[in-house]
Amino acid sequence: MNHFEMPLAPRGAGETIQPWAVAGLAVAVVGAGVHLSSRREIEPALRGASLLPYCEDIVTEIMPSHDAVIVGGLAIDAFNYKYSVIDVDKRSITVDSGFESLLLRKNGTVRDYDVLVIGRDELGRPRRLPDETQKKLKERTDAATKKRAQSLNQPAPIMSIFSFDDHRSLPRSATIVSGDGRISMEHGFVSQLLPETAMDKWSLTLPEGITINILNPWEQYWRSMVRFSSGMKNKDAEKIGLMLKRLQSTDGLAEMENQELSSAYRSFHDQMLAQNSLTAVMESLQAPNRDWEHTLKLGELVVTSKVMAFGQKFETVNRIVQGTPKVFNSFVGSK
To answer: Mean pLDDT lowest for which of 12-16, 64-68, 108-112?
Structure first.
């Protein structure tokens, strides 16, 4: 099997950071610093607080009426947990009482978790949920989460409830679904159609007996590799590297890798990084029939990629931005 070597350095590693990229980051950090001064220090007693009880709110408020999956951190943590029971035939992961997914990050900020809600048309094909439906689901789930947090005397986790994207939003890659239910990954001018197996689901059973839906492990791995304009996030390198090792060493998982899925994501990854480069901008400028709008868009892609790659090199910057309004988050991809 052909896989990327881990850890894969995000785009920008080893390259010269341009002055305009540093200037853009400086603006974000100054604004972030202002907001940081108002942050309340989390009590040490909460250091062992768990994120897991809040998963019940997803089960009760979303899953009965909608097709929802948890993506990212919690699912990856469970897959990487050395005592988890992985049943390839049943497409399930079960973790015991020793599994931990803490409410707080090491730097004291509150963790978030992402829930992808998949709409369905009358033929069962995936579609994007209307904005108003997404809003109502989030309001309902946030209310349940805040009520639980108050009863536990804890800060509520940040819950992101979203459906497929309706546009390409930098610096993240966008997951787009067409009218006929076909799913593609898009970033800038790059678009890659994914096979139907991309949305295959697994189940995750937590110690409390709560069962939630998660993306299949190979899809989760590849999504992490193409998450942002600079590729994989620096902070994810260790856990994604561990995930790949387990994917390749667990009986049945290596064999079940969908080559069509991997080929599609690998192609998207390479095209995205090639697009988000100074070389692409220079080639566009030197084209006989140059399109200035196209060139400016490429320049924007390069700026976001370089600024993000630079920002991720510094833990202090990441720590500051994790406590800031969303307007600054895109600079280092803190979500």
So the answer is: 12-16
